[in-house]
Known about the structure:
By secondary structure, this protein is mostly helical. It is built from six helices and no strands.
Amino acid sequence: MGAWELLLAGVIIVLGLCGVLTPGVPGSWLVWAGVLWWALNDPRPTAWAVLVGATLLLLLAGLLRAQFTPRHASRTTDLARRPGPRGYAGLGAFLGFFLLPVVGAVPGFLAGLYLHERLHEGRRPREARAAVRGMMRSGGTALLVELYAALLILGAWLLTVLLR
């Protein structure tokens, strides 16, 4: 597999990560499609192992997401209705995932939500923490599960490509 194809697979995976944060876009499946395309063009056993792992991880994330999706969300804290916090949370999870490998995505996600509430909503610390708890109850946990699965797939793909 050439450098351009590898770069294109990486772009598809990163676009999938952005798609996870965008309502209505099947971002996690774009991540999977990028890994599939890479595995089809790089027929080594490690590529296929990453693809199988990505498939199982996305199926597990789908089951967990269904468990965490609220039946009825509050209008004031629904994360799906507000694009600003999703961007901050996604950037925080991405930075946390690579600064504190793997486990840093969760605190990064929460820190991104908190930072948005403090900076853009002008809330005091206590109110911002309460708003973050409300957002996590009203769909934030489901979003975090899907984003974390996509980040794990990105990490596995990147590690396999770099160790080649």
